[in-house]
Amino acid sequence: MSKEAKTNLNEILPLLKTRWSPRAFEDKAVEAEKLRNILEAARWSPSASNIQPWIFFPGLKGDETYEKITATLVEF
Questions:
Q1: Who contacts 43 (Cβ-Cβ below 8 Å, separation ≥6)?
Q2: 45 in Cβ contact with 53 (< 8 Å)
Q3: Per-residue pLDDT tens over the stretch 6-36
Q4: Does the pTM exceed 0.90?
Q5: Which of 1, 36, 48, 66 could in theory staple to 59 by disulfide, Cβ–Cβ 3.0 to 4.6 A?
Q6: What is the DSSP letter of 56?
Q7: Exposed, middle or buried by CB within 10 Å (0-12, 13-18, 19+), for 71?
Q8: Which residues are CB-neighbours of 2 under 8 A, at least 6 positions away?
């Protein structure tokens, strides 16, 4: 492992150890600029063999896309 890789691993391990999977969310909309930034970061994320198999369906609460997405969710 190169020195650069070790440094990056040391920086990311604490983040990975503290991650969590939310089961509930605040009733507050995400700002449009933040959503654009998140989707842009996801768009540039690596994929196997640069296949980039993802498709994004952003939906705003109350619109048709949002309703279709939430209709597929299973309650915990």
A1: 56
A2: no
A3: 667 888 888 889 988 887 888 888 898 999 9
A4: no
A5: 66
A6: -
A7: exposed
A8: none
